[in-house]
Write a structure and sequence with these properties.
heterodimer, A: 250 residues, mainly alpha, Ferritin, 64% helix, B: 96 residues, alpha+beta, 3 strands, 22% helix, 23% strand, elongated
């Protein structure tokens, strides 16, 4: 069971790190200074979360690996993040709509994980819930601004929704490992969150006068290590310093 | 479009601890008061500096002008009797 919790914890760490790094690409590139700081706060929340998950994973592994080894010494095929986290930052509407989808997801997922019988996972989740509530407040408001703003902001938001929608389904899949942990009261049954997630997302999009895409398509594979080309590029950049100077500390 | 076309300037006031007054800490740009409050949180309380934030549109502040300082403030300079220390207390009054 310990190996399975290790695998599960690593997945959650991968989700947080990859999205946190993606958001960090907005540093000094955001539309204006205030938003730059706000967005990087969110990025740092995710990177902090990744550290907690990897720290616990390292403890469970007990083989001398550190959180840094989990972040910097694994290849693309070993990363098991859900694909929606690795998609490029796109334009600002794309980034914020992705946030809306994942923020609503985490606002449902984390309270469940906080009830995990695994005390460490429960504690990490309990800490992250507060951050996520704030993230969702931001992405909700931005969605309204886009949808009810100018023609251009509405078009860009709608385009982002259409491009992202097919990546949201994967968040609610469960493989054998996740089913087993959910049944054991350690992991979360993501499938059970889907109806409420859809209800909340549709309510916000409707409020913003934006539309759900008609087409039905879905991309999956992140949990098994099958990624889009974007992850390789992200890891290349993120891991380059650590790989060039292994074990360097400052 | 420059940001001054769409964003307004807000002044930010922060209460650092319960029981203290809100103090002016700076200003920022935002689209509306709600967003100004959130940016106030993100820009000025990242290291746990506050427990309460006020924001107010800079345009809504009525401020004294440099030109007014003569008529506003100088007259009090020659009226020391407005200060408690101007008065000599009788010995019988130990503390006031």
């Amino acid at each position: 069971m310990k190996d399975k919790i290790l695998e599960y914890t690593t997945r959650l760490g991968d989700d947080s790190l990859v999205l946190g790094h993606r958001l960090s690409e907005w540093c000094r590139n955001a539309p204006f200074l205030e938003e730059d700081l706000a967005l990087i706060n969110v990025s740092l929340d995710y990177i902090g979360r990744a550290r907690m998950f990897y720290g616990y994973a390292a403890e469970l592994a007990g083989d001398g690996r550190s959180e840094d080894d989990f972040a910097f010494m694994r290849d693309q095929r070993e990363f098991s993040n859900l694909l929606i986290h690795e998609l490029p930052k796109g334009d600002f509407a794309y980034t914020m709509l992705r946030q809306l989808f994942v923020d609503v997801f985490y606002s449902l997922f984390l309270p469940r994980l906080a009830e995990s019988s695994d005390e460490t996972l429960a504690a990490i989740a309990a800490k992250a819930i507060k951050e996520t509530r704030y993230h969702l407040r931001r992405s909700h408001e931005w969605t309204l601004r886009f949808g009810l703003g100018t023609d251009e902001s509405r078009e860009r938001a709608q385009r982002a929704i259409d491009q992202l929608w097919g990546y949201t389904h994967e968040m609610f899949d469960l493989d054998a490992l996740e089913s087993e942990l959910a049944e054991a009261g350690i992991g979360v049954d993501n499938g059970a969150l889907k109806a409420e997630w859809e209800r909340q997302v549709i309510a916000i999009l409707t409020e913003a006068e934006l539309k759900l895409p008609q087409e039905e398509w879905a991309v999956r594979g992140g949990r098994e290590g099958y990624h889009t080309e974007n992850l390789g590029q992200l890891l290349n950049e993120m891991q380059s310093v650590h790989r060039a100077y292994p074990g360097l500390e400052w | 479009m420059s940001r001054s076309d769409t964003l307004e300037l807000y002044e930010v006031f922060l209460r650092s601890r319960r029981g203290l007054d809100h103090k002016h800490v700076g200003s920022l740009h935002a689209e509306d008061p709600e967003q100004a409050l959130e940016y106030g949180r993100d820009v000025y309380t990242r290291r746990g500096e506050g427990v309460s934030i006020w924001v107010v549109r800079s345009n809504d502040i009525c401020a004294s002008q440099e030109d007014d300082s003569e008529s506003f403030f100088d007259p009090s300079n020659d009226k020391p009797y407005r200060l408690a220390t101007y008065y000599q207390l009788p010995d019988e009054v130990d503390n006031m």
